[in-house]
Amino acid sequence: MSVIIHQNLSTSISSSTSTFLGHNNLKSIKCSNVSIPGRISGVIKCVATPSAEKTAYKTKVSRNENMGKLQAGYLFPEIARRRAAHMLKYPDAQVISLGIGDTTEPIPEVITSAMAKRSYALSTVEGYTGYGAEQGEKQLRAAIAKTYYENLGIEEDDIFVSDGAKSDISRLQVLFGSKVTMAVQDPSYPAYVDSSVILGQTGQFQKDVEKYGNIEYMKCTPENGFFPDLSAIRRTDIIFFCSPNNPTGYAASREQLTRLVEFAKENGSIIVFDSAYALYISDDNPRSIFEIPGAKEVSMEVSSFSKYAGFTGVRLGWTAIPKELLYSDGFPVAKDFNRIVCTCFNGASNIAQAGGLACVSPEGIKAMHEVVGFYKENTDIIVETFNSLGFKVYGGKNAPYVWIYFPGQSSWDVFSEILEKTHVVTTPGSGFGPGGEGFIRVSAFGHRENVLEACRRFKQLYK
Amino acid sequence: MHKFPTFSLTPCKTMLQTIPSTMKAQDKDRVSCYFTKVGRNANLERLQYNYLFPEISERELRHIKKYPNAKVISLGIGDTTEPIPEIIASSMANYARSLSTPQGYKGYGAEQGNKDLRKAVAETFYKDMGIKDSEVFISDGSQCDISRLQMLFGSNVSIAVQDPSFPAYIDTGVITGQTGDYEKGSGRYQNIAYMECGPENNFFPDLPKTDRTDIIFFCSPNNPTGHASSREQLEQLVEFAQQNGSIIVYDSAYAVYITDGPRSIYEIPGARKVAIEVSSFSKIAGFTGVRLGWTVVPKELVYSNGFPVINDFNRIVCTCFNGASNIAQAGGLACLSSDGFKAVLSNVNYYKENAEILMNTFTSLGLRVYGGVNAPYVWVHFPGSNSWDVFNEILEKTHIITVPGSGFGPGGREFIRVTAFSHRENILEASERLRSFLS
C-alpha cells in the first residue's frame, strides 16, 4: 500500500486501505471525513498499490498450454523437497533415504581410472578430441552391441549412446511428435507420462481418476500378477514398457513378453522397452526385449549405466533401434532418431563414454556385477523385513525396488507417517500413477548400515 | 541450390533382395516387410536435408576416400583442436577418481546443476548484471538447450531467426512444429521470420521491417557471419522485443571472442524482462566433446498470463534431463577459477590469431571478408556465386573443408564460412594453398 500526498486537494481516505503508515514526515492533514492526528499540510490519499503482478512487464508470448496441464512438480524433486523439510524439522535425526533411487556405492576403480585417463588425455596434443559422433563413440557402440545384444541381431550402428534414459525418453517423444497415442503401465516411472503431457500427446488431467486424458493406463497390480490384461487394452501407437519394473519390481516372463510383442504386432504399435534394471534379474526372465522373436519389428530398447555402474551423476545410457522398425509408410524409425540425435543433442560426454567402455570390458562387467549384487543383498534384507512384519511384499527379486502393500491407506499418508516416525524417506506409490495408490516403494540403494538401520526402525514401527 | 542426398525410402526392397530363395513362406524367421501402423512424425518429414554438420562430415570422408594421399585440412565444422589446459583436465581426472571413494562418491546431482558452478557462472559472466545463481541452469551444451527451450515454448509460437544463422534454431523449430513447409524457391520454411543479415545492413537486421514473432533467436557474436552486435544495436533489439512482447533467445556461445563490445544481452537495460541467454563451454574451453553449457532465465521473464518462464523451464529440466555430467561440471568449475580462466583465454587468443591470419589471407586476395575480429569464423563473400559450388571447388582444388553459406540459410548463398579452429600450422598451410588457388 502506498501513500500519495497531494497538495491542496481534498479527498477522503480510501476505505479499502487496511493499513496506515506512521507519522514520519507527515504534517497535519485537512481531510473531510477523517480526522487524523499529526501535522500534514496536504492531503493523504491512501491507495492500494497495484500488486507487482499488475504493473510488472509481461511478454505477449503465451505459456505452452501443455506445461499448464502438468499437475505438480516432477515426482522426485518433490520427494527431495520433503526430505529437506524433514531434515530442517529434525536437525538431529539421522534421516535415511530409501526414496529416490539414487546409487550410493563408489564406482569401481577400473571404470573411474579410465575416465581419469581420458580426462588427462584431453590435455595432450595426441589425446585431445573435440566433437564426437552424436550417436556415440564407435568402440563403445560396438561394445554395447556385443555385450548386451550378441546373437540378438542388434548391431553397432543400431546403438545410440546418450546421457541417460531420462533424456532419451524425451528425445523419443520429440521423435514421435504430438499426434501419437501412448500406453503406459500403471504404476510406472513418471517420465513417460510427464514427457507425453509436455509433448502435447495427452488431454487434461482428470482429477477423479487421477489420469491424463488420451493415455491408456495399463494397470499392473497383484491381481493380474503385475502384467497388464492386454485383451482390455485399447490400441495405442506407442507402448512404454519397463521390465524389471520401476516401481513394482516385477520382471515380465518370456511368455508375457511374447504376448506383448504379439499384441504390438497385431496393433501395429511400437514398444519402447525400458531395460534400465535388467542386470538385477535373478531368474531367467528376458533381459532384453530383443530376446523375443519378432521384437525387432515392433520395439526399441532404452537402457542406462546409472544403476549398473553408479553413473547416476556421470550420465550415460543408450537406445537401441533395430533397422527393421518402420513407420506406417515404411520409413525407418532409426533414421529419424538419428536426425533428432544430430540436431537436438551433441553426444554424451566423451569422458563418460570412456567410463562406459571400461564398464563393458571383462573387468568392468565383473565389477558392475559386484555392485549390482551388493544392492540385491540390500533388497533381500528389505524384503525379509517387511515379510516378517506380515506385509504383502512385491518386487525385490528382480529389481532394486520393494513394493509394499498398505491396503486402504493413502500412499502419501503412509509416506508421511514412515518419514515422521522412522526418519526414513520412501516413495509413495501414487506418485507413479493411480495404480500405485496403497503402495509404498522402498529403494534398495543405500549403504548397508543404513539399510539395516532403516529395517530396524521399520520393525520398531510395525511390530 | 544444391540438393543434398536423401535417404532411400525403400529399405524393404533392400531387405527382400537378401532373402535366400530357399526360404519357405511359412518359415518363422522369414524377413518380412512389416510396417508398424505408427505414422511418421510429419515435422520430421518436413525437414529438407540432413543436419548441416553431419553433411559436411560426410563430404569430408568421401573426399578423403577419393584422395587418400591428400592432406585434407578441416576448416569446416567449428570443432576446437587445442588441448584442454592441464589445470582443468586434472581437476576432471581427480573428480573422476574421487567417485571411487566413499567420501567422494556422488550420485544424482541437482538437475539445474552444481550450486558452486551456477554461482561461478553468475559471478564470472554476469557480474553486476543482477543475474543470480538460481537463474543459471547448467546443461550438456547449447544444442541440447536450444531443443529444450523449443520443447518449453511448444508448437504454437512463432519464431524469427537471423539469416544466415546456426541451423539448430530453424531445424528444432521445424521438429517442434512451429513452421510450415519448406519453399524451394526462397529456400525458406513458411512461418519463420528470416531477418536478413548481410553487408548491406552491417549484419544487423532491419528491425522496423521485421514481422512480430513470439521468439527471436539472436546469436552474437554471430555464427556464421562473425558479426558482434554493438551496444546500440542490442538496445534496438531489446526495445523491439519489448514493443512486440517477444522473447529473445540470445546465443552468446562466442562472447569470449569479442575484442570490443557487449558480451551478454543483460548488459542492456530491460533485457532481463525479455531475454533468455544460452551459452557454452565448448568454444571457451575446448569442451566440444566434454559437453557443458548453461542457460540463463531471469525471474522477471513472464508469459502473457504472468507465469514465470523460469518455473516451466525448471520443470522441463527436471523431467526431460538429469543434469550435465558431474565430471564435466567439475571441469567447468576449474575453468572459472582464476588460473583456469587465464588458461582457457590463452587458447581463445590462439584461435583469434588464427582468425586474423585467415582474414589477412582472404583480404590480400581481394576478397570481401567479414567477421574474424570478434568471432572464430571468417565469412568470405563470393558475389554472384553458389556457395556449394565454391565449397566444392575449394575442396577439390585445395583439399580444404569449409562450410557453404547457404547451409546457414538463403542469406548465406554467396558466402563461405571458414573456421579459425585449427592447429596453427594447418591455418598457415591452408592460407598458402588458398593464395595459390585464388590468386
From TrEMBL, chain A:
<comment type="similarity">
    <text>Belongs to the class-I pyridoxal-phosphate-dependent aminotransferase family. LL-diaminopimelate aminotransferase subfamily.</text>
</comment>
<dbReference type="GO" id="GO:0008483">
    <property type="term" value="F:transaminase activity"/>
</dbReference>
<protein>
    <submittedName>
        <fullName>LL-diaminopimelate aminotransferase</fullName>
    </submittedName>
</protein>
<feature type="domain" description="Aminotransferase class I/classII large">
    <location>
        <begin position="94"/>
        <end position="458"/>
    </location>
</feature>
<dbReference type="InterPro" id="IPR015421">
    <property type="entry name" value="PyrdxlP-dep_Trfase_major"/>
</dbReference>
<keyword id="KW-0808">Transferase</keyword>
<dbReference type="InterPro" id="IPR015424">
    <property type="entry name" value="PyrdxlP-dep_Trfase"/>
</dbReference>
<keyword id="KW-0032">Aminotransferase</keyword>
<dbReference type="Pfam" id="PF00155">
    <property type="entry name" value="Aminotran_1_2"/>
</dbReference>
<dbReference type="InterPro" id="IPR015422">
    <property type="entry name" value="PyrdxlP-dep_Trfase_small"/>
</dbReference>
<dbReference type="GO" id="GO:0009862">
    <property type="term" value="P:systemic acquired resistance, salicylic acid mediated signaling pathway"/>
</dbReference>
<keyword id="KW-0663">Pyridoxal phosphate</keyword>
<dbReference type="InterPro" id="IPR004839">
    <property type="entry name" value="Aminotransferase_I/II_large"/>
</dbReference>
<dbReference type="InterPro" id="IPR019942">
    <property type="entry name" value="DapL/ALD1"/>
</dbReference>
UniProtKB/TrEMBL annotation, chain B:
<dbReference type="GO" id="GO:0009862">
    <property type="term" value="P:systemic acquired resistance, salicylic acid mediated signaling pathway"/>
</dbReference>
<dbReference type="GO" id="GO:0008483">
    <property type="term" value="F:transaminase activity"/>
</dbReference>
<dbReference type="InterPro" id="IPR004839">
    <property type="entry name" value="Aminotransferase_I/II_large"/>
</dbReference>
<dbReference type="InterPro" id="IPR015422">
    <property type="entry name" value="PyrdxlP-dep_Trfase_small"/>
</dbReference>
<protein>
    <submittedName>
        <fullName>Aminotransferase ALD1</fullName>
    </submittedName>
</protein>
<dbReference type="InterPro" id="IPR019942">
    <property type="entry name" value="DapL/ALD1"/>
</dbReference>
<comment type="similarity">
    <text>Belongs to the class-I pyridoxal-phosphate-dependent aminotransferase family. LL-diaminopimelate aminotransferase subfamily.</text>
</comment>
<dbReference type="Pfam" id="PF00155">
    <property type="entry name" value="Aminotran_1_2"/>
</dbReference>
<keyword id="KW-0663">Pyridoxal phosphate</keyword>
<dbReference type="InterPro" id="IPR015421">
    <property type="entry name" value="PyrdxlP-dep_Trfase_major"/>
</dbReference>
<keyword id="KW-0808">Transferase</keyword>
<feature type="domain" description="Aminotransferase class I/classII large">
    <location>
        <begin position="71"/>
        <end position="433"/>
    </location>
</feature>
<dbReference type="InterPro" id="IPR015424">
    <property type="entry name" value="PyrdxlP-dep_Trfase"/>
</dbReference>
<keyword id="KW-0032">Aminotransferase</keyword>
